[in-house]
């Protein structure tokens, strides 16, 4: 079959993913999951979840979290459902479900899809980050996961604001060049925005940003300590990133 079963968190969970097409999850999903504190015990929505790696990572580490994977592409929804059904995921499967929905839906259409107002305590997202001007992939499923659409952050963050309760939280991972679009989309919706730059190594430019924000807060933006994937020129992960990748810590345990 054109799929693989991949091990994450050193056996903490298993994920069915496309083998030769579509998006295959890796470190970005684990870093995104790391934005959720280990003691989180509410309802979380993984928006644009793909096969569900970030949501599964939260469910595996946060033992009382209830996770809803929200994905538009039918093929990726099918992979997520296969992952939930795996015997290896029996310990967490009863806390994970899937909704097939387009994040650009509004009002009644969004609610009819199962995304109700104020239904979640936390929303996380790893939106597409490639510019439409970049070299295009011939794989339509991969393009859907990687290529930004018009007003993408406005649409996704608007939906997050609708489904997250007041004083609930938003977490996302993106490229640094998207920061201005993200901040604009958060205006009037999310405040107390914490920006964590992610660098491959010290003395190198940030390659990602992690954003944590609180719905309806008016607290100002804060630039947080940087996260380094590698401590030196070696290929080994830094201790913190290794712990996040393997479900041992959240990013908050470094502060």
UniProtKB/TrEMBL annotation:
It holds the Pfam family MTS. Coiled coil: none annotated. Keywords: Methyltransferase, S-adenosyl-L-methionine, Transferase. GO terms for biological process: methylation. InterPro entries: DNA_methylase_N6_adenine_CS (IPR002052), SAM-dependent_MTases_sf (IPR029063), Small_mtfrase_dom (IPR007848), tRNA_Adenine-N(6)_MTase (IPR050210). The keyword Methyltransferase applies. Residues 36-135 form the Methyltransferase small domain. SUPFAM superfamilies: S-adenosyl-L-methionine-dependent methyltransferases. Gene3D superfamilies: Vaccinia Virus protein VP39. GO terms for molecular function: N-methyltransferase activity; nucleic acid binding; S-adenosylmethionine-dependent methyltransferase activity. This is tRNA1(Val) A37 N6-methylase TrmN6.
